Amino acid sequence: MLMDHWPLLGLRLNTPRLELRLPSEDELAQLADLAADGVHEPDRMPFIVPWTDLPPAERARSVVQHHWLRRGNWAPDNWALNLAVFTDGRVVGLQEITARDFAVLRQVSTASWLGVRHQRQGIGTEMRAAILHLAFAGLGAADALSGAFEDNPSSFAVSEKLGYEPDGVAQWSIRGRRTTMRRLRLARASWEIHQRVPTTITGLLPCLPLFGLTGQAED
Asked: From what superkingdom does this record's organism come (predicted)?
């Protein structure tokens, strides 16, 4: 079975409303269709790489290619896990967690997007809480990093609920304009205080070597 060689296919994160897991090929197509339908208002750009400026068909294709690229480039000291987010069996968005030299640094970064029709329903908070549970409870992370441009209040609202604290700023050229990103950091102690979303992890133990880890994990 393919899962014997790529155990991440069996990894599941479950919250009261959501399931996060790698998508099948048909589900990846649904995720691409969701991106083609829109991710944010056209007058702003929340991403460093402006992939949502592509025409809908190219935007959908970029989702598929990016997903394949992340799998193909995976290494235990440099990995990126792109989990599709499901509610009632429907694909609603994508939650990413990445790390370099995780076994030493114990530090992850997260990013995500939701289809426009699934926004403002609390899903963004719940899916980030789920991936943070994987990071801290499952993988033993010490810190989780995030960030958003100053015109993205919804992202900051999610981060505030989950206990993130300011971690400086960075300047980027976005659509030809100087744009300020506010960096955020969540320490393990703060996560323990603010965690509110019940999350279960299944299928993690056989995945640990892919994350550069050995030993026991929550399962």
From this structure: Bacteria
- Positions in the chain whose pLDDT score sits under 70: 215-219
- Fold classified for 2-210: Aminopeptidase (3.40.630)
Which structure tokens are listed for 3? Answer: 């899962």
pLDDT of residue 154: 84
Count Cα neighbours of 45 within 13 Å in the Cβ-side half-sphere.
17
Q: Residue 74: which residues within 8 A CB-CB, separation 6 or more?
A: 80, 210
Q: Kindly state the DSSP code that residue 80 receives in the 8-state scheme.
A: E
What tokens appear for 123 in the block? 């899903």
pTM given for the model: 0.94
Q: What is the pLDDT of residue 214?
A: 84
What are the angstrom distances between the C-alpha of 132 and each of 40, 84, 160, 176?
Answer: 24, 15, 14, 33
Q: Check if the beta carbon of residue 113 is closer than 8 Å to that of residue 182.
A: no
Q: Are 29 and 57 in contact (CB under 8 A)?
A: no
Residue 180 structure tokens: 């300020």
User: Which of 148, 134, 146, 110 has its CA nearest to residue 14?
Assistant: 134
Q: Is 101 left (phi over 0), alpha (psi -120 to 50) or beta?
A: left
67-87 residue pLDDT tens: 999 999 999 999 999 999 999
Dihedral Cα 120, 122, 125, 129, nearest 10 deg: -160
